[in-house]
Write a structure and sequence with these properties.
It is a single chain. This protein is mainly α and 465 residues long. Helix content is 61%, strand content 1%. It folds into two domains: 22-81 and 149-268, Hypothetical protein af1432, CATH 1.10.3210; 272-464, Hypothetical protein af1432. Helix 2 (43-57) crosses helix 11 (231-241), helix 7 packs antiparallel against helix 8 (165-172) and helix 15 (297-311) runs antiparallel to helix 16 (316-328). 47% of the residues are buried. Bound molecules: fe (ii) ion (FE2) (2 copies). One fe (ii) ion is lined by residues 297, 301, 329-330, 411.
Length: 465
């Protein structure tokens, strides 16, 4: 008998359920953004601690503080969208590149030195030269485009998550500088939101204090006063930095709980089931933006998994629960470099190992999020096989629950029928033939049969329309 993890718990029924605090949900998800940016766990949370203290020192009102809170927590929402481009342009591991780039001082010469020292490290001389010359010729436009993609995508995803215009604007303008030297629009002074500048300051302060200690962080922020940062924001930061306990909490185990307690939203915004669906769908966009070859993968897998579940007679609340697992199943890919994800050639053993770890990362990320904790094993198991030859655990048969088996079939079907870096898209009949061939060894035949029925029904529906 197939073990199923789904139980009709409160909150999965579309009914009232235990209301979720928005701050805790977004705070937990922000750990996935930290991974994509190559930052140590809790970076966005720590930035929120810094940013809120700066905002309060500046005398911001409650509404402005609420917008600032989510601008800082979600500042990296668009981070996955330029990862593939960074790999292609700089022939570099996007995660390492992003991590390193943020530790150079704010000058253009240091930024260029870093870029040239990192470009094409693992490539041949001619390839490296070609990349360097391209950067020399088009550096300004390349940089603008990378920041624009990231900021605009982040703002769009924030809108999908139902955050107000002010938060979207805050994210969109994260990389603008007070003196107009930022990206992508080179806006200056009052032409972009104060919250963006506070968020950027918090980012620089946290990265430098983690990397080089608090004195260096203070020195770096001061050095950028009147340049990257408005002088009054730097002054507020210096006052906040002198408050007893500020640094101890920042680097202590209770920072997350303290940041959640700071949420200034009206009635501490609560998330209902519909909003949770929107947040899961928006985060699927973050995942799918990581690689051009996985564009819309999560939403298609969700469609196929839901189709199979419907064919198998799942109730609507059960299907809703499974749809969230499908939307977020590959969230662990945010921790894998695009140099590996998008590699057109054969992967070596270490690269395979990194790929295999993505579903393990999916489970670890989702476990942190109370609202998604019970879908974590489903996402973590989507590359397991009935015969035990899957990964990461090598689970066998009844150790793999029905929902995971459904997700696996939906995932493989999309992987086969969509274009991938190493091959073109496969005709549907061929993809189904592969699923049939491996039914009983890799895949659950009942789920494969349900997919086939669902596809036939979909096709006939389309024909009728
Ligand atoms: Fe996967
Ligand atoms: Fe997948």
């Amino acid at each position: 008998m197939v073990y199923s993890v789904y139980r009709s718990g409160r909150g999965r029924q579309g009914g009232p359920g235990p209301a979720l605090r928005l701050s805790e949900l977004i705070g937990a998800l922000s750990h996935a953004l930290d991974m994509t940016e190559g930052q140590p766990p809790g970076h966005c949370i720590r930035c929120c601690w810094i940013g809120m203290h700066v905002g309060r020192e500046m005398g911001m009102g409650q509404a402005a503080l609420a917008d600032l809170y989510y601008t800082v927590l979600l500042k990296d929402l668009g981070c996955s969208s330029n990862a593939a481009r960074i790999c292609a342009l700089y022939l570099a591991d996007d995660i390492n590149f992003k991590r390193g780039f943020k530790t150079v001082d704010g000058s253009l010469s240091a930024a260029l030195r870093f870029v040239f020292s990192q470009t094409g490290l693992g490539s041949g001389l001619s390839e490296r030269l070609r990349a360097v010359v391209n950067i020399l010729q088009n550096g300004g436009e390349i940089s603008r485009e990378l920041f624009e993609t990231r900021c605009h995508r982040g703002a769009d995803i924030a809108a999908k998550m139902r955050f107000p215009e002010a938060v979207q604007d805050g994210i969109r303008n994260l990389d603008e500088h007070w003196d107009g030297s930022g990206q992508p629009q080179k806006l200056a002074g009052d032409a972009f939101p104060l919250a963006s500048n506070v968020a950027l300051l918090a980012q620089v302060a946290d990265i430098f204090q983690r990397d080089r200690g608090r004195d260096e962080a203070i020195r770096e922020v001061k050095a950028r006063a009147g340049g990257w940062f408005a002088p009054q924001i730097v002054a507020a930061f210096l006052r906040a930095a002198a408050v007893p306990g500020f640094w101890e909490v920042l680097n202590g185990p209770e920072v997350e709980a303290r940041v959640f307690a700071l949420d200034p939203s009206p009635q501490e915004a609560r998330v209902d089931e519909d909003w949770l669906d929107d947040i899961a769908a928006a985060f699927a966009d973050v995942i799918d933006a990581k690689s051009p070859f996985t564009a819309d993968h999560s939403s298609r897998v969700t469609l196929y998994a839901d189709m199979i579940a419907e064919e198998m007679g799942f109730s609507e609340p059960h299907r809703r629960w499974l749809r969230r697992a499908a939307l977020l199943h590959d969230i662990g890919k945010l921790a894998v470099s695009n140099q590996i994800l998008d590699k057109p050639g054969k992967l070596d053993e270490a690269e395979w190992q990194a790929i295999r770890m993505h579903s393990w990362h999916s489970a670890r990320i989702l476990e942190r999020v109370a609202a998604f904790r019970d879908i974590a094993p489903i996402a973590g198991g989507h590359h397991e096989r009935l015969d035990g030859k899957g990964y990461p655990e090598g689970l066998v048969r009844d150790e793999i629950c029905l929902e995971t088996r459904i997700l696996t079939v939906a995932d493989v079907f999309d992987a086969l029928s969509a274009e991938r870096p190493y091959r073109a898209a496969m005709p549907i009949a061929d993809a189904l033939a592969i699923l049939d061939r491996d039914s009983g060894t890799a895949f659950d035949p009942v789920c494969v049969a349900a997919l086939r029925r669902g596809l036939v029904r979909l096709t006939s529906g389309e024909a009728a329309a």
